[in-house]
Every structure is written in C-alpha cells, then in structure tokens.
Write a structure and sequence with these properties.
With 233 residues, this protein is α+β, with helices and mostly antiparallel strands. It contains 7 helices and 6 strands; from the N terminus they run αβααβαααβαβββ. The chain has one domain (48-227): Ribonuclease T2-like (Ribonuclease Rh, Chain A, Alpha-Beta Complex), CATH 3.90.730.10.
Length: 233
C-alpha cells in the first residue's frame, strides 16, 4: 500500500473510533433512565416527625448490662427512643453531614431525663437529628417538647405488675389520655409477645398528625400481649 493510502486509512479509523465513542456516551444509559443529576442535600427537607417511645422494661430485659445508665433500676416506663424526620411517601433522611459535632454537655444534661442514655443521645443525633437542620440544641429542645406533648395513661406511667393488653386496648388508653390522637396517628410495635415501642406521628410543631405512607403495626389488634412491669421504683 502506498504511503498516501496508508495515511488515509489511519485517519478513517481515528474518525470512526471517535464517532463510536460519542455514540456510546450518548446511549450508555438504560432506555428510559433519567440523566444523572446531583442530589440536593437532605438536611432540613422533610415533612413530619415520628416520635418513637420505647417501653424501657422490655428493652432492659435483654440489654440491661449494656445500658446501666438507662436500666440500672431507674424505674423508667416510656422513654424517648428518637424523633425521626420523615417524608410523606415513607422513609426519611439519615446520617446527614453536620459540622456541629456531638451535643454539648448542657444539651445532654437537659435530654437525659427523657432519653436516659448518652450513647443513645449521640446515636440519635448523628443518625436523625442532624438531618433536621435545627442544630443539636434545637433538635433536642424540639424532642423535649414532643415528649411532653403526649400524655401517658395512668395505668402505663409506672405499673408495678406486668399488664396484659391488646392493640385495641392500648390505642384506646392512649386516645383517652390524648383526645387529639387518632388511630391513624400512631403505630404499635411488639416482639415475642411483648410491647416494644409506640410511635406517634407529629407535625413540625410537635402536634399529633396523620402518619405518612409505609408505616405498619406489629402488635396484634385483638390478642393480648405483655407490657412488662417497671422495675426499680
């Protein structure tokens, strides 16, 4: 092959490869797949809260040795497990970036009466609280107001003996103590025949509101389950 023909052939190969590469870049996504976009920061973007109220005696039956601060015969009934920002369609932001660090000593001290574990306080701040955009002091102040906004029925404040209740019984008791609370504003959670947690849906002003999507109950509505007695009174 003459030199001019060889150079022409090489140029054609280069042009063809460039066209193939451009075609591949344009059509590399699956059919119908949207173009990749930068996702906005989740911090501060949510619709409502779930307030998770843990029944401490159930938790302490299995975790007491690890959580002496909460379970060392302190006499807790319901404690605040967490205040979780949620989306209307289900789920919520978690583990958002924060430059504030962990809550300061004053914030921790103010939170311990209703969330009696420093380990839990720091965990909930990193996983959920930072996503609210309120800062640690603002987040735990909101959590304090939320916890105080839900009144416990007298029979659940500090039962010295274990109780047997159905989901319907527990819902009725909670609604009697909180007239603004409806069935669609809470979920009940049980494990191995015992009450674990009550979760209440709240708006950003910590008022009860209808829960969003993809929330489920795990306590039986008509069959009884155990609510273990409060220890260490």
């Amino acid at each position: 092959m003459s030199l001019p023909r060889l150079l022409a052939a090489c140029l054609a190969v280069v042009l063809l490869c460039g066209a193939d590469a451009a075609f591949a870049r344009k059509h590399s996504r699956e059919p119908g797949a949207p173009a990749k976009q930068e996702q906005p920061a989740a911090t501060g973007r949510y619709d409502y809260y779930i307030m998770a109220l843990s029944w401490s005696p159930t938790f302490c039956q299995t975790r007491g040795d690890d959580e002496d601060e909460q379970c060392g015969r302190k006499g807790y009934g319901f404690i605040l497990h967490g205040l979780w920002p949620q989306y209307e369609n289900g789920g919520g932001p978690e583990r958002c970036d924060t430059r504030d660090g962990d809550p300061d000593r004053a914030t921790v001290a103010a939170t311990l009466p209703f969330m009696p574990s420093r380990r839990l306080i720091n965990h909930e701040w990193r996983k959920h609280g930072a996503c609210t955009g309120l800062g640690a002091k603002g987040y735990f102040g909101t959590a304090d107001r939320a916890f105080a906004a839900i009144h416990m029925p007298p029979e659940l404040k500090a039962p010295a003996r274990s109780l047997e209740m159905s989901g319907d019984d527990l819902r009725s008791a909670l609604k009697r103590a909180n007239p603004a609370l409806g069935d669609d504003m809470m979920t009940l959670h049980c494990s191995k025949g015992q009450l674990v947690e009550v979760r209440v849906c709240l708006d950003k002003d910590t008022n009860p509101r209808r829960c969003g999507k993809r929330l489920r109950n795990s306590c039986p509505a008509s069959r009884s389950f155990e609510i273990p007695a409060v220890q260490g009174q």
